[in-house]
Design a protein that fits this description.
Length: 427
Amino acid sequence: MNLVWGFFLYTVIGFILLSLPIFHKTNLSILDNLFISTSAISTTGLVTISIFDSYNFFGQLVIMGLIQVGGIGYMTLTTYYLLFTTNKITHWHSKLIGTEFTLPNTIKLKDFIKSVILFTFIMEIIGSILFYIAFINTGMNNLKAIWFAIFHSISTFCTAGFALFNNGFEGYQDNVFVNTTIAILAISGSLGFIVITDLWYRISKKSKRLSFTTKIIICGFLLLLFIGTSLLFYTESPSLTGKNNTVLISFFQAMSAMTTVGFNTIPIGNLSLSALLLVIFLMYVGASPSGTAGGMKITTLTAMLAILKSRLFGQEKITFLNRKIPFERIYVATSTFILYTSLIFLFSFLLTFSESFAFETILFEVASALGTVGLSTGITGDLSSIGKILIIILMFIGRVGVLTFGFALVRQKQEDAQKFTIDDLAV
């Protein structure tokens, strides 16, 4: 619960700051400020108002700060500070970090925390330089290019989806350099710090091989990205007739959904129904645990497939690629799967009462909010007050809800505290 209250506190702080008139360019409602604060700390990117037209430089700076805290995780920052000043981590911090980031046994917590901070800032600096070059080459003035580069680099790596352009990156649809920069940053952040730490162990020869988790994440991500790109290209080719780089557009939108970075180079509202459903699935799955992306996670999908395979073949043990998956991980995966599926159904159901939009656009909005993606068919700003409140709740749950399941699992096990009668249940 400490994690939940921590993120809630930062959301409130962000809301109070964004409500100050000195940060505004125009009059803003309390609900819109709360929506933006929640969207930033949850690294979602759904917005009810234009960020650039509504907030001045200092307001945008507050939003960027919330994105950074939400992307790395406030407990990670706190723990790194303790390591830097005392070179020690308390048991309480270790427990909470274990909840926020589910780590395999092969990775040490201290090495993981240091790699998170170092890798984050290295990638954000590189991203800022690349974005600056891109924006300068498109004729943007120097000061604006610097600020836009820093803001979009942090927003991209943290897969927050906040853009200072009112139409996202539609103006850069054919710009291979910008598309590639976003893809590199988003994939680096979404693949997760587990993968980065594991790769560093392998390069520095601290480990002889990559962990099973890293292999699953990388292979699963590449496979889903390829399938998503191919299907989007196939389903949307007719609507993209006349546009250049249709493969690039398809790749970018599949990547944007999977990494939950939430940027778009084409109007999402113009996608066909089949494409919308495909993007919803990619947002639902997400990328990697212990990264900046949201969603159910590739590892959860893998575990669910392993359960299905084991049941179909009548196997007692849950295995995947000839590796046994511990039951503790299976419990987390099934809990996450049930949570996400139930929440998508529940909030879609509730929004049908308060909103008059087509069901597929409501479902898309819900999947985007819960997966902390930020893609929208264009209905976010037109939501009713009740609709905005529901999406605010959903974004917050998307950022911290699954963590509560992890917290329940790392509590001290109560061995036979109560005796239960064993009975049968037909399933």
